């Protein structure tokens, strides 16, 4: 009996993925545990192993295909003693798969955006919900209980510029309004404004809802030929979706303070100097090399243990109080960023945190992290100090209730006991979900963090 191989769900939230590469070809024999394909999710590239033994009878979804839904058929195995040809025929009735992207898709999109053309083959018009009265040109008037026959693109452009399609003469089949008709109406100054929908008598007035500009409206703002279109990959789409979700659903509250880091820098130098050496392929190397960010991770984890009410996540039914500090760390990678997590950071030594972060960051940049290594967590750190940024506010990454934005350490003039002296200072901003961590609680957490940063030896006991 043929064995179907389907697109696996590589994380609890995965809905689709890109089939990056097949590591087998039709006719190859596979055994349980053999790596047969690489799947790209929004954050990582994962290897897919065979579960059953058999011969690859048919590869249904070719390498390079994007947007393959979870549980969609991607290949068929022929079982032991089964004819591969017969097994391959079982894939013939499989649902249509997502199309592999064309190599010159960006160029084609750019050409379409830069060179307006009349639509040659309009899509079939949606049927009118009620019998349509014609407006003299074969199109149905879009007023009252009837609607104008128009292509989706023509409707979108007309909506963006406020033209009533019922006043536009259609040149398409059966008087259908197409893109060229709307553009002609815009150029001639014709076309009436679309009538505004009126609220029922007695209904309360509602404020207008701002809507994002359509792609076509945005492209019209730029000179043709002055740009190129680069399609979004899954990572960028996911980042955009989650940022919109975070800023539209989480009431952000910001707290900023300055930390003196002279003692921390001194301790870091002492610990790195005392690091034991080990043999490597490139010669002797220290067993660890601490960064300031490693010490920030530890300080934030200990602060959350000192202020446990701030180590929480908001849900509509209950507050989630976490028992450990799982600290995510924002890592910039090509095309976006990812937040690998140092689990139970409060229990780990600085050297363990340092080596773990180097491993996580390296695999993050090559998109080799497992979902459990970047999903979840109780808080996060975003450090732009290495870019010279003095201070900034970071966006909370759900389900976290806090994120710490870390600026550059710099020498500043400060007043100590009435005397102006130089000190290395670092500005940090804590973003909190005000539903879970209000101002006073956030201030308490940030105060605990400052104490560990300015008295770093406390992180060693």
Q: Tell me which CATH architecture of the largest domain applies here.
A: 2-Layer Sandwich
Backbone CA Rg: 30 Å
How many distinct domains? 3
Q: How does the overall form come out from the CA principal axes?
A: globular
Helix/strand order, N-terminal first: EEEEEEEEHHHHHHEHEEHEEEEEEHEEEH
What is the CA–CA distance across the termini? Answer: 62 Å
Describe this protein's structure.
There is one protein chain. The chain has about 450 residues and is an alpha+beta fold. It has three domains: about 5-90, OB fold (Dihydrolipoamide Acetyltransferase, E2P) (Beta Barrel), CATH 2.40.50.100; about 115-195 and about 210-225, E3-binding domain (Dihydrolipoamide Transferase, Irregular), CATH 4.10.320; about 240-460, Chloramphenicol Acetyltransferase. Helix content is about 25%, strand content about 25%. It has helices at about 85-90, 105-115, 150-160, 180-190, 215-220, 235-250, 260-275, 290-305, 350-365, 440-455; strands at about 5, 15-20, 30, 35-40, 45-50, 55-60, 65-70, 75-80, 250-260, 275-280, 285, 310-315, 320, 325-330, 330-335, 335-340, 340, 380-385, 400-415, 420-435. A six-stranded mixed sheet has the order 9-20-19-18-14-17. A four-stranded antiparallel sheet has the order 1-8-6-3. Strands 5-4-2-7 form a four-stranded antiparallel sheet, with no helix packed on it. α8 crosses α9 and α8 (about 290-305) crosses α10. The longest helix has 16 residues, at about 235-250. It starts with a strand and ends in a 7-residue tail after the last helix. Mean pLDDT is about 80; it is low at about 95-145.
